[in-house]
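User: structure tokens for ABC transporter permease, please.
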Amino acid sequence: MDFWEYLSDRHQQLLADASQHASAVFQCMVAATLLGVLIGVVTYRSEWAGNLATLSTSTILTIPSLAMIGLLIPVLGLGVPPTVTALTLYGLLPIVRNAIVGLRGVDPSLVDAAKGIGMSRPARLLRVELPLAWPPILTGIRVSTQMLMGIAAIAAFASGPGLGNEIFRGIASLGSKNALNQVLAGTLGIIVLALLFDAAYVLLGRLTISRGIRV
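Assistant: Done. Predicted tokens:
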């Protein structure tokens, strides 16, 4: 059968895999964002601490995804746990780096003005510094999401969820009549999901970043 017939015949399974893929990436991005921003908040005031945070997260990113999941399987088993752990760790670097850069780039005079009107340190962080640092943080989140969309396909190696299962089934059955269709369907599905997520981030940026900051 041709590719379009394959899509028509397997659309329910493909939609289920796409839903699992998107859900896994979304949940891991939420975890990576919370952890990455927290690391940025804790380390941005110190040069050595910020460099250590960036170096540590960049080192994680150099570990091949198959090796990372392979190392996690003996500890966490197969399925969702190693997938979520690996994706969350891989998503940290752009968020941590951009959080540090964004927070360090806040105009000190604005922070001093907030201090002058009696704002506490947590209030200044939540109401002044983080909102002003949000544009670069959101950029880091977008970059991380695009990376994780592709890396999540490797989760099939550990019996994880997502469109990677379609790709792995196609690779495992190379030479069969549907092998190419399976690989193509999984790959195109990931591309479509990545574009949809990126469009959602653009909309989120328009809703959460004030026009003055965008300008």
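User: Anything notable?

Assistant: The mean pLDDT is 90.
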